[in-house]
C-alpha cells in the first residue's frame, strides 16, 4: 500500500490514489478504501436526491394545506427543487429507480411530513403521498 494513510488525511490519500491510478501503479493502491469511497459516492448521490425530494414534498404539502401563506419564496423553492432533481437525474440516470422504490419513497415521505409539520405546526397531512411522481416533478403541477 502507498504512503499516505486513509484515516490520517483523506484528501491527501485521495490525491495520492488518483496519481497512482494514472501512473498504472495498481500494485500499491489502497483497493479496499478506494472501493469504499466509490460506494460512498453512490450513497451520497442517493442522499442528495432524497434530501431534495423531501424538501420539494414538504413545500408541496405547505402549498396545498396553507393556501393563505403561498408566496414567491415557496414557489421559487418548489421550482428550484424540481430543476435540481431533474438535473440530478440527468447526471445520474440510475437514480430514477429510487423514485419507484416504495421503501425509499416511504422514507422520503416521512422526512417531508416531519419537515412540513415542524414548519407549519399542522398535523393534517396525509400518511401516504397523494401525488404520483410525474405530478411531483412536473413544472405545471401545483396542488390545491
Strand and helix order: HHHHH
Structural class: mainly alpha
Number of strands: 0
The total count of helices amounts to: 5
Helix content: 55-70%
**What is the CA-atom radius of gyration, in angstroms?**
20 Å
- Average per-residue pLDDT, rounded, comes to 95
So what's the overall shape?
A: elongated
Characterize the main sheet: none
Terminal-residue CA separation? 59 Å
Question: Multimeric state of these chains?
Answer: single chain
Q: Unreliable runs, pLDDT <50, ≥5 residues?
A: none
Give the percentage of residues in beta strands.
Answer: under 5%
Can you put this structure into words, describing what you see?
InterPro entries: DUF29. This is DUF29 domain-containing protein. The chain has 144 residues and is mainly alpha-helical. The protein has a domain at 44-137. The protein is 64% helix and 0% strand. The protein has five helices and no strands. It has helices at 10-22, 31-65, 72-91, 102-120, 133-137. Helix 2 (31-65) crosses helix 4 (102-120). The longest helix has 35 residues, at 31-65.
Summed up:
With 144 residues, this protein is an all-alpha fold. The protein contains five helices and no strands. The protein has a domain of 94 residues.
Amino acid at each position: 500500500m502507498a504512503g499516505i494513510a486513509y484515516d490520517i488525511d483523506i484528501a491527501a490519500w485521495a490525491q495520492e490514489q488518483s496519481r497512482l491510478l494514472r501512473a498504472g501503479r495498481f500494485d500499491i493502491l489502497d483497493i479496499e478504501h478506494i472501493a469504499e469511497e466509490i460506494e460512498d459516492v453512490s450513497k451520497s448521490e442517493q442522499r442528495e436526491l432524497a434530501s431534495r425530494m423531501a424538501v420539494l414534498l414538504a413545500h408541496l404539502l405547505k402549498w396545498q394545506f396553507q393556501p393563505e401563506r403561498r408566496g414567491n419564496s415557496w414557489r421559487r423553492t418548489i421550482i428550484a427543487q424540481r430543476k435540481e432533481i431533474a438535473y440530478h437525474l440527468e447526471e445520474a440516470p440510475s437514480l430514477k429507480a429510487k423514485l419507484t422504490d416504495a421503501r425509499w419513497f416511504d422514507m422520503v415521505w416521512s422526512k417531508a411530513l416531519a419537515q412540513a409539520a415542524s414548519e407549519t405546526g399542522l398535523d393534517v397531512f396525509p400518511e401516504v403521498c397523494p401525488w404520483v411522481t410525474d405530478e411531483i416533478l412536473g413544472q405545471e403541477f401545483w396542488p390545491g
